[in-house]
Every structure is written in C-alpha cells, then in structure tokens.
C-alpha cells in the first residue's frame, strides 16, 4: 500500500511538472503564463491540483498543531496585553478556509518556478520535459540528489529570508497606509493578541494572503536569477533549500501568532535573529515591526520597536489554558 501511494505521488508530481513551461529569454512572460494556464486547466491537471491542495492543507494542519503544542513544554508564555479575539466570525472562517486552499496553488507555482529554471544535464536528449535548457542566465534550480551541496542548499536560505522580508516589510507598511488599511489589512488586526499559530496567521484578507505568499516566488526569482544592477548575478537553489525556506517560514510565521516566547539571539552581543515577541508588539502597536521573519529591515527603515516586558498587563486579558479564551470572557458568561 505504501509503495502504491509513493508511486501515485511520484506520478502526480511528474504530471504536474510537465505543465510548467521552461523559462527562457526567447519566450515572453505573457506567452509563458498563457502556456501555463493552458497546461494546468486540463481535467487531469485540475484533479492533480486538487489532490495536491488536500495534501498541502493536511501538512499545514500538522505544522500548525506542532507549532502550537510542542513549544509549550520548553518556552515561557508571552503575557497577553492586547484584547484576544476569542470567537471567530463567519468572515474569519471564510478567509481562513479560502487561504488554506489557495496554498495548494501557491505550492504548485512555487516549485513550478524552480522547475522552470532547472539545471541543464547533457546526454539525455533534449525535449520539452527534459532537465535541459541553456537559454537562461543567473543560477539554476537544482533537482538531482547528487547535485545537492552546501552552496545550493544552505547558503541560499538566509539570502531568501533577507530578500523576502525586504519586500514583505514594504508591502506590510503599504497595507498600513490609512487610505488602504480599512479595506485589506484591518481584518488581521481584529486579533490584538494572536494565539492560534498558523490559524491566526492566515486569518487575513485573501488579497493580502496572495501577495504575501507569492512574495516567496518573487524572492526565489531574484535569488536564482540575480539583480545585475546590484552586482548580484544569482545563485543555484536546490529543491531542498526551497523546501526548508517555506517550511521554516511557515513555522516562524506560526510562532509569531502564538503566545510562545521564542527567540534566536546571542545574549552576549545583544544581536537577535528572530523573536516572536516582536510581532506581538506589532499587533498591539501597528506602526512598528513590519517584518515577517526578522526585523532587519525595520531597523534599517526606523520602524523597529523593542518589546517592553514592563508594559501593563491586564489580568482579565490572559488566556485560560483549558479553553484558549480570555479569562475575562468566562466572567462575562
């Protein structure tokens, strides 16, 4: 049974891979998108995408539950200072459900992009579904196990995070502009004290979710193909690096929306790579800490605000560990 399941998954991946057009300087982006749409909207491809979406949603549930439950035994709890959103509305659940489903399409296009710029391997014949193409500059997507290395698997990860957060910080700041805020990002800030991990993380307007998720593809494109104007010629990125990037990103985004006090820092130097409390500050004081995974660019742009453990704590806002709801809500009932 396991062997049959693995064979089915491999076959599904291979079928979806054949729908991805090869990135090439001789083909315009419009032509590539048109070809992708034509290939991906056949009945077989749509069925495969449905199966992929179900698998991705189940994986997200595992990650969310692990992010929520596992750290409880090892880390302290961040006191609740903002009002916790105890009960989700129909709109909340509609946004959460839609965004989870959208993740399947994102995963398809994310890996599809890396497949479209895959490394050329000579000697196996050249056809539209082979691993060969020599028309593109910059780095390549690395898919063969024997080609994995530190330079295409470990080195790209911090670069991907830095590039992603540069654009995410700008996007997040833009969504807080007064004329725009009420129409898109305000929904996410109904929650002043996120606690449900990835469930609270994806409780955003679908437009915001789309922009945030597909920013990963933009980051991948810029890291692989480079930015010649800045003197960066691109680098090879393996499928494993791509997986670690979105996997770690999903965990960090989930931790940002829990009460878990998780930090990656050097206490001697005072240098902090990641701190879940920084995003907690953002939910209470929105004009600060716009970064998703780090506050590097907030420090550069002057929007960083440190967590203050001496800020006032309202006992009624604290969460009941049994229910996950505000203690004050029980008294009201």
UniProtKB/TrEMBL annotation:
Keyword hit for Transmembrane helix: yes
Compartments where located: Membrane
Pfam families, alphabetized: FA_hydroxylase (PF04116)
Major subcellular location class: membrane
Ranges that cross the membrane: 46-64, 93-113, 154-175, 237-255
Domain Fatty acid hydroxylase: 159-303
Keyword terms of this UniProt record: Membrane, Transmembrane, Transmembrane helix
GO cellular component assignments: membrane
Matches recorded under PANTHER family: STEROL DESATURASE
Protein name per its UniProtKB record: Fatty acid hydroxylase domain-containing protein
Lineage summary: Eukaryota, Sar, Stramenopiles, Ochrophyta, Bacillariophyta
């Amino acid at each position: 049974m396991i062997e049959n399941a693995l064979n089915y998954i491999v076959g599904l991946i291979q079928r979806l891979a054949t729908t991805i057009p090869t990135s090439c300087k001789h083909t315009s982006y419009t032509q590539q998108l048109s070809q992708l749409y034509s290939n991906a909207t056949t009945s077989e491809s749509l069925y495969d995408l449905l199966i992929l979406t179900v698998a991705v949603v189940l994986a997200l549930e595992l990650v969310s539950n692990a992010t929520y439950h596992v750290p409880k035994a090892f880390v302290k709890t961040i006191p609740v200072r903002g009002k916790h959103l105890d009960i989700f509305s129909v709109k909340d659940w509609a946004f959460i459900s839609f965004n989870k489903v959208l993740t399947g399409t994102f995963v398809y296009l994310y890996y599809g992009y890396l497949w479209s710029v895959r490394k050329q391997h000579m000697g196996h014949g050249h056809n539209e579904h082979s691993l060969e193409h020599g028309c593109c500059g910059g780095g390549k997507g690395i898919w063969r196990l024997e080609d994995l290395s530190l330079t295409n698997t470990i080195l790209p990860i911090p670069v991907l995070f830095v590039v992603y957060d540069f654009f995410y910080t700008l996007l997040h700041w833009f969504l807080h502009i007064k004329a725009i805020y009420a129409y898109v990002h305000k929904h996410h800030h109904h929650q002043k004290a996120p606690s449900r991990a990835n469930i609270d993380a994806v409780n955003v307007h679908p437009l915001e979710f789309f922009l945030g998720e597909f920013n990963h593809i933009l980051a991948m494109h810029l890291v692989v193909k480079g930015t010649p104007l800045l003197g960066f010629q691109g680098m090879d990125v393996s499928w494993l690096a791509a997986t670690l990037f979105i996997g770690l990103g999903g965990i960090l985004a989930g931790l940002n929306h829990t009460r878990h006090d998780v930090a990656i820092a050097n206490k001697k130097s005072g240098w902090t790579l990641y701190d879940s409390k920084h995003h907690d500050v953002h939910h209470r004081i929105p004009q600060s800490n716009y970064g998703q995974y780090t506050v590097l660019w907030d420090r550069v742009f002057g929007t960083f605000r440190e967590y203050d453990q001496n800020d006032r704590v309202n006992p009624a806002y604290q969460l009941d560990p049994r229910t996950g709801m505000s203690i004050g809500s029980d008294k009201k009932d």
